[in-house]
């Protein structure tokens, strides 16, 4: 069966996000909080940042999906992350993991692996991070990747099958896989790499799309990446640098029209990658 | 006696903020820190973010007013919040409470109620939050409200009388009350709801206005809301979405002219609401 | 021997930052994280925010330089700051200290002094902060300075000689000294004082420049301040207020051209100041 990967299907799901306004509970790093909350709002979702041991797991009851990002990790937060992920699973709610900097330090890698054991719906990272999570030889340099998405795909597919989740690997072309099928997303602009936490924010956007299509996280993730990348393309036309790109990106997510999405989304199956 | 609620009175107090540059100590959530500090600076006040047990209460000596916002709450911060509020009271300095997410979780609601016991000068929240603080049946969905300001007014007035404070309830029309009189503020733009932490930031702005008129927190709060809402209206004229609205809002707070304030502030007593 | 303080030498070092993309590990306050990460990216460096006890010192191995900023200080962070500074020294990597609010509270001042003992490569603060660090009579009002850079220079020179570091004092004219020579930087715009954390961010930029010229932190710091100030000047030409200045500043750091740097950098030795 072919996957629905058109601009029309992306627009349809995006409209569902705007109409239902899913509440996305975010436990995320300090750098990303502002852009993540603003991106979710611009796209029509509703962000809630609640991270403490005392309430994170209780908060899940109110949420449609959960985003966990380990960026500025500390032990005080890891307990909450695990409790929240566990609560999400028990309540049957999707949860998404952004394994920032996997492989950089022992503490970080071990925390991430313990979260992977709690079976996220989606793991989204750059090639090095995905390789480190999969147990491969990912070379990490801080939070940037030194490998390409294609290099990480084989390990990413293994990881997806083993965990039973979707894995998205960011790059010039993003690759999304459930371990069997692979979707390539070619929307985006290189200038995005000069704006901090855009990767963190788009992972949260994927959580919002998945909340509106929990039966098909592969397609939902691909659609989220495409809509985000397209908004960045629209913003890049007038941007004078990374800061105006960021402003334009959020404005475009808020105001992008049906025709722009339908005509410019660049998604396709790429099972032979 | 009629309250002074004109554009001229708003401008007069705004000028006092710009001239004296009150230092506002903010213990606030991680999402709001950037926009709150920038909004205070744009308006002519001076922000200081100091939250730790070891110095927050000592820092109050330097401040003209204190803002406490419980957004990304954790136990490590609640002790500081209480110590700082207590110190502000003892020093006779105004302090303002933003009860973000009141009613969402047990931990959050209990922390907020313990802060209310320390008698803030102003409590500012959305309708659901005010109803939850007042002990009513506020329905909370994350940090958004599902009730209107008018619905919360009766409970808000009770709360104001019981605590001896001003209560401001945000909405399409903001309502501000000391338990006896009610002021309605109609400045603003709906697009503000798509920018995170604007509510947090305007509560800090209210603290700055109160610092310059500590004898009349009801009028000071109304003036702060009006100037903020008017700046948002000016920004909305040219905004292409929520991110450019945010940029324009801060620019307008910095550059708004006397005639614009005098002619466009929309404040009135609304005791029969 | 004359110092190289031309626009051409600033451009040369700036190009080295862009070409090598040094990884700057930042342990910094919550308010500054967004603008600091975005400024480093715009300038071609690579930011990594990693602060926890469990990994900060291990992370130093990956970094080219370290930035420590005590803005929103808490005891949980001070141990990491000291461990990271110690690790940087042992590995022979430059580290830079931003003593935000030195003198404001006992806890803050003592923490800063314990970090100074670990011999930073650069200390950068406003006049009051530098005077407080040097043990003088700096008058602090929150995080703003009430003294001028020239007033703090004598104590700053003493501090630089005693620690064996470079000291940069911000002001209308920035002064940079190694205790023997003094460089004045006149680039910048007063509107910068209305944008939060620009001082924090430029200290991180200085760390990136020092990472590319570790043998000469005096000149590297001066060049960083000049390039930053020049980008702010370019942005100020079109800014409508502090928020658009911030956008334009980051855009300009990304896109500023060789001729603009070569012709407009305002650096000179000022040993008789």
From TrEMBL, chains A, B, C:
Q: What is its EC number?
A: 2.7.1.50
Residue runs in coiled coils: none
Q: Does the keyword Ribonucleoprotein apply?
A: no
Entry keyword set: ATP-binding, Kinase, Magnesium, Metal-binding, Nucleotide-binding, Thiamine biosynthesis, Transferase
What are its GO biological-process terms?
A: thiamine biosynthetic process
Keyword Glycoprotein present in the record's keywords: the answer is: no
The catalysed reaction is: 5-(2-hydroxyethyl)-4-methylthiazole + ATP = 4-methyl-5-(2-phosphooxyethyl)-thiazole + ADP + H(+)
InterPro entries reported in the protein's UniProt record? Hyethyz_kinase, Ribokinase-like
Kindly name one Pfam family recorded for this protein. Answer: HK
Entry-linked NCBIfam families:
PRK09355.1, thiM
Please report the name of this protein according to its UniProt entry.
hydroxyethylthiazole kinase
**What is the organism of origin for this protein?**
Elliptochloris bilobata
């Amino acid at each position: 069966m072919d996957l629905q990967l058109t601009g029309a299907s992306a627009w349809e799901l995006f409209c569902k996000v705007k109409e239902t306004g899913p509440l996305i509970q975010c436990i995320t790093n300090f750098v990303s909080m502002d852009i993540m909350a603003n991106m979710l709002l611009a796209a029509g979702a509703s962000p809630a940042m609640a991270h403490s041991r005392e309430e994170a797991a209780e908060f899940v009851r109110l949420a449609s999906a959960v985003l966990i990002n380990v960026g500025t990790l500390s032990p005080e937060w890891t307990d909450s992350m695990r409790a929240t992920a566990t609560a999400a699973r028990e309540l049957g709610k999707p949860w998404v993991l952004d394994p920032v900097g996997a492989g950089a330090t022992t503490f970080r890698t071990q925390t991430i692996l313990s979260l992977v054991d709690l079976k996220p719906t989606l793991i989204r990272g750059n090639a090095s991070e995905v390789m480190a999570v999969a147990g491969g030889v990912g070379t990490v340099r801080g939070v940037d990747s030194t490998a390409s998405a294609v290099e990480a795909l084989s390990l990413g597919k293994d990881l997806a099958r083993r965990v039973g989740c979707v894995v998205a690997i960011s790059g010039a072309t993003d690759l999304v896989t459930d371990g069997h099928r692979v979707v390539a997303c070619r929307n985006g602009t290189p200038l995005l790499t000069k704006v901090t936490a855009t990767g963190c924010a788009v992972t949260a956007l994927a959580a919002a799309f998945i909340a509106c299509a929990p039966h098909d996280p592969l397609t939902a993730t691909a659609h989220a990446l495409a809509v985000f990348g397209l908004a960045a393309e629209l913003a890049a036309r007038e941007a004078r640098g990374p800061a105006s790109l960021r402003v334009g990106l959020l404005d475009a997510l808020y105001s992008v029209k049906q025709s722009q999405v339908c005509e410019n989304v660049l998604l396709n199956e790429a099972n032979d990658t």
